[in-house]
Amino acid sequence: MKLTKERIVDAGMAVFAEVGYQNLSMRQVADRLDAHAGSLYYHVRGKEELLALMADRVCRRAYDAGTAALAALPSATTWQDRVQAQATALRAEIKEHPGGAQLLAESPGMLSTGAFSLMERLLRTLLDGGLPAAHCGIAADTLLSHVTGFVLQEQNRPTAPPAVTAELYADLCERFPLVMGDLIPRLSDDEKFSRSVRLLCTGFAALD
Questions:
Q1: Which candidate in 26, 192, 201, 203 could, as Cys together with 187 as Cys, close a disulfide (CB 3.0–4.6 Å)?
Q2: How far is CA 59 from CA 66, 74, 96, 181, 198, in A?
Q3: Are 156 and 121 in contact (CB under 8 A)?
Q4: What distance in Å separates the CA atoms of residue 80 and residue 129, rounded to the nearest whole number?
């Protein structure tokens, strides 16, 4: 099968899911394609460009998912609901790719039309919602950083909680009653994410 940039990005995503950001190499990607490593450089200049292309693909797919989510909202929906729809779509798309949050957080700073599209639409949503232009940039950056950071925690979470003795558990409960106790509700990740985005929007709306 003919080697193309799209196939190289496909292979890069597959290798990345297995070995992570730091360990991905062009040779591994070439092996996945049953090709010589040198032949990849006709299409992609190196690992940094490949990582940028992979991050751009995630952003473009998140943009398309956000478009569908926004289209499903009632016409009279609030700007907060529109922000929520975009943030939720981005989180879902990042989670589709093992290590996707790390990819977006650490990929090289190259021009990405996918990332620009996400930012442009989010900025327009905030402006149309009545937020002062002076605050829209930091608000959009904060939202996108929050989504990436939230998923980074989800994807890096241990599969099993650490084992503790009854004595240690009792000590922790005594020393950290708010963390370990029942006063603060335990929320699902979905509910925590939804509320956190709402909380950010409430803060943005209070700016003048």
A1: 192
A2: 10, 25, 12, 39, 22
A3: no
A4: 8
Looking up tokens 């394609």 gives 33
Take residue 127 and report the two structure tokens written for it. 């402006």
Question: What SS3 string covers 6-48?
Answer: HHHHHHHHHHHHHHCCCCCCHHHHHHHCCCCHHHHCCCCCCHH
Residues 6+ apart with CB under 8 A from 142: 200
At 11, list the tokens.
């292979």
SS3 23: coil
User: Does the domain spanning 1-44 belong to CATH 1.10.10.60?
Assistant: yes
pLDDT tens figures, 53-104? 999 999 999 999 999 999 999 988 999 999 999 999 999 999 998 888 888 8
Mapping DSSP to helix (H, G, I), strand (E, B) and coil, where does residue 206 land? Answer: coil
The domain defined by 59-206 folds into Tetracycline Repressor; domain 2 (1.10.357)
